[in-house]
Structures
1.
Amino acid sequence: MPTPYPVGTCANCDEPNRVLKYARRTMCWSYACQQAAHLSVVERKAHRRARGTSERTEKAAPTFCHKILSVHGQRDVDPACLVGAKRRNKLSASDTNVSYLVYGEFGEHEHDAGFRDTRWVELTDLLNLKTADTKKLVAFEKALAQRMAEKRQKLLDATEEDDEGEDGADD
C-alpha cells in the first residue's frame, strides 16, 4: 500500500486541508506550489554542491511506540488513503486498517529514551507491546461505548424536549 500523503496547511499558499505531496510533504498539489517546491529542491541541491557534499544525507530512523500512556481515539480507515473510487464506493476489507490515536513514548528502539507524542498507531504495531499496555486499548473501547451511549441518550432527550416545547406553543 502506498504511503498516504498528510493533509494540512500548505507552506506555500497557506490553504488549509490540502493534500501535501511536494517539498518533503509541506506543499500542496496546485501548480504554483509545485513550482515553489521545484525551486526549493533546486536551491537545496545547489547549496549541497556548494558545500561539496554530493551524497544525500541519511534519512531519520523510523520511530515506534514503546509505551501507551493514554488512548484518545480509534479509526478503522485512514481517509488520506482513500482517493477517487474508494471514497465513492463501499470499502473492501483490504481498505480497513485499525489505528488508535495514542499518547505514548516513541523511539527508534526499546532502549531509546525517545520522546512523548500523540500519533495514530496501527493495531498491528500495538499488539507487540506488553499486556498492560494493550489493556489500555480495551479500557478505552469500553469507556468509548459507554460515553457514546450517554451522549446519544442526551441528544435524544434534548430533541424530545424541543418537540414537546413546539407542541405546547401551538395551543
Note: The radius of gyration is 23 Å.
2.
Amino acid sequence: MKIVDKITALFGPLDVVVIERDFETLINKTDEPDIFPECLDYAQEILGVGEYAERNPTCWKTFQGQPIEIGSEEWRHGIANILRLTSTHKVSELDNERYHLQVGITLEVLVINAKQLPASSFNGAKCISVQTPFGKFPVVGEQKDHTA
C-alpha cells in the first residue's frame, strides 16, 4: 500500500503527518552551518501542496495565519527561520578547507493536504509518522524509495 493511501485510509483530515528528512552538503570552514536551498526547496514541495497549505502546522507556527504566498522570498525566509530553530545540525571535519554538514528537518503537514503529495515526495524521508489525538503512529521507517 502506498504511503498516501495509508494516510488517507487510516487518519482524519486534521491529523498531522510528520516528515523527517536529512540533507547533506559541504561547507567551507569559514561559513556558519545553516539551512541551505535544498532544504527549503523540499519544504516548499511538501508544505505548498493542498487546498489548505497555509494551515499546515509548520506554516501556521511560522506565519500565524498571515497570508503569505508560498514560495515567495518572505515565505522562504520565514520557513528557513523555523527550520533553524527546529532542525538538527551535525558538522564533521572533511579536510583542511571544508566541513560535511548534515541537517535534519521536520515538517508537519495536515493529512488533508498530505493526500495531494506525490509518492516521490517521501523519497529519502528518515521517518514518516502521523500525530493524532490518540498519539503518534509510524507510517513508515527509513527507506530509500517510498513509491511502493
Note: Residues 3-140 form one domain.
